[in-house]
Amino acid sequence: MKRYDLVIVGAGPSGLSAAIEAAKKGMKVVVFDENEKPGGQLFKQIHKFFGSKEHRAKIRGFVIGQQLLEEAGEAGVEVVLNATVIGLYQDKEVVVRKGDRVEHYKGNAVIIATGAAENMVTFPGWTLPGVIGAGAAQTMMNIHGVLPGKRVLMLGSGNVGLVVSFQLEQCGCEVAAIVDAAPRVGGYGVHAAKVARTGVPFYLSHTVVEAEGEDHVTGVTIAEIDSNFQFIPGTEKHFDVDTICVAVGLSPMSQLLKMAGCKMEDDPKRGGQVPICDPYGRTSLPGVFAAGDVAGIEEASSAMIEGRMAGIVAAEYLGYIDEEELKSELASLDEALNGLRQGMFAPQNRGKAIEKTEEGIDISESLLKNGYVADDEIEKYPGVTHKTGIHPVIECTQNIPCNPCQDACKKGCISIGSKITSLPIVVDDSECINCGMCVASCSGQAIFLVDESCQDGTATVTLPYEFLPLPEAGTKGKGLGRDGKVVCDAEVVSVKSMKAFDKTNLLTIRVPREYAMKARFFKVV
Amino acid sequence: MSERIKEHPILGVQEKGKSVKFTFDGKELEGYEGEPIAAALKANGVMVHRYTRKEHKPRGIFCAIGRCTDCVMVVNGVPNVRTCITPLVEGMEVCTQYGVSAKPFEEQ
Question: Does domain B19-102 have CATH number 3.10.20.440?
Answer without folding.
Answer: yes
